[in-house]
Amino acid sequence: MQVLHRSEHTLKKALISKNPVLVSQYDKLDAGERRLMSEAFQPSSNLFGPIIVHSQSDWINSHPEVPQDFEQFFTDSHRKAPGPEKHIIYIQSIGSLGNNKVISEEYIKWLKGYCEAFFYGLTVKFLEPVSISETKCSFRVNEHTQNLQIHAGHILAFLKKKKPEDAFCIVGITMIDLYPRDSWNFVFGQASLTDGVGIFSFARYGKDFYSSRYEGKVKKHQQTSSSDYSIFDNYYSPEITSILLWRSCKTLSHEIGHIFGLRHCQWLACLMQGSNHLEESDRRPLNLCPICLRKLQCAIGFNIIDRYKALLRWIDDESNGSSGAAPVNSSDPANLKKPVEAFKDWREWLIKCIAILEK
């Protein structure tokens, strides 16, 4: 295990810059916002900790990247930002997201609400769900796991054609596993920053995907030709547990963050850290570090306290006192509670940040 300590000087330069224009912009931030961001420089801070590398297989070791500070983000000529004519994040569900229609619809509402809070100030819209057959994508049965997979590149091409004129981006979400090319085992997601499209799978976030009990395995006698999409009819969808919702929100916000131009974070523990595997992804926090937070604020223009309060409301609203410990399995919308137990620690983190902002 290795703790990557960045010096106060390094973090200040990454956040504030030495460019007089950007320093002036930072100085014009609300006093509470500057107070919160300065937590990045406090060694004893319990809000923004250092990156901890657990093994050589972790992303930061196996994928060397040039760190992106705020100045590099701000001056990136290829970075796309929302504007008056392109200000909507569209989300397209592909295939069933739950084991019945009610669960699928509620899960979509929860994700929509989370994205609206996370990317505070932008509109988030869900397009009408589409079936796998409507995408005309290639698919296969993974020879290792025996589960169905759809071709990520073909889905991106489908989404690019569907992208509305007023879209900042369009992202697809699915409970079907993905593969980018025949030689690859799988991929969690894939995006084209140039086209503003992405596709992300939550299939491997179910509690039993890697177990021998996984119900999504395809039997030999079920396997059909690559043009017969009937194999997806009533295909297995994992239960929408609190941990699956937590992982889904984390992946969706991380990947949309890339479309805004945020690269993998190498400064502090942050949502925008890269991850090579599920264990590493689970270690990432839900929050952005101050450097990445300033990048997103620059792109969208929100007040940080308003954004944090919106995220807190998302956790508290519509949960109706549910602990979220049990799977979401009701077919009655009135009894369907948002499973927010996995967000408990983050809720406390948000409250601490709001207190600093309001001090």
Automatic annotation (TrEMBL):
Source taxon at top rank: Eukaryota
TM annotation in the entry: none
Gene3D superfamilies (UniProt xref): Collagenase (Catalytic Domain)
InterPro entries: Archaemetzincin, MetalloPept_cat_dom_sf, Pept_M54_archaemetzincn
Swiss-Prot/TrEMBL cofactor(s): Zn(2+)
Keyword DNA-binding: no
Signal peptide: none
Annotated function: Probable zinc metalloprotease.
Family: Belongs to the peptidase M54 family.
Protein known as: Archaemetzincin-2
Source taxonomy: Eukaryota, Metazoa, Chordata, Craniata, Vertebrata
